[in-house]
Amino acid sequence: MFNFYNDPGHGWLEVTTAQVAAVGLKVSDFSRSSYRRGNTLYLEEDCDAGRFLAAWEAMHGRPELKDVYQPQTFIRNLPSLHA
Fold first, then answer.
1. pLDDT tens digits, 34-54
2. Domain count, the chain
């Protein structure tokens, strides 16, 4: 199961760098609109999350997503993936 964080303006899929590597992707495959805290990535919903989910589904089947709504998500305060 993957957490999908969202606030009133946007959403991000939480994944680990190990999960990214497990589907044949690299951190550099994602845009500056995604964020990182240690080995955890928060992939922006418009492009990056879809890229990861398509790769995951091709290898493991459709993933279950848990919606996590936060009026002021902590993710916006994290450094950009390519900062």
1. 999 999 999 999 999 999 999
2. 1
Question: How many CA atoms lie within 13 Å of 17's alpha carbon, on the beta-carbon side?
Answer: 10
Using alpha carbons, select from 4, 21, 16 the residue that is nearest to residue 55.
Answer: 21
Q: Given CA atoms 38, 27, 50, 8 in this order, what sign does their dihedral have?
A: positive
Whether the pTM exceeds 0.90: the reply is yes
The predicted model gives 55-75 an average pLDDT of 95
Please list the helix, strand and coil fractions of the chain in percent, rounded to the nearest 5, in that order.
Answer: 30, 30, 40
**CA 70/CA 53 separation, integer angstroms:** 22
Is 83 domain-assigned?
no
d(CA 12, CA 19): 15
**In which element (H, E) is residue 3 found?**
strand 2-6
- The answer to whether residue 28 is domain-embedded is yes
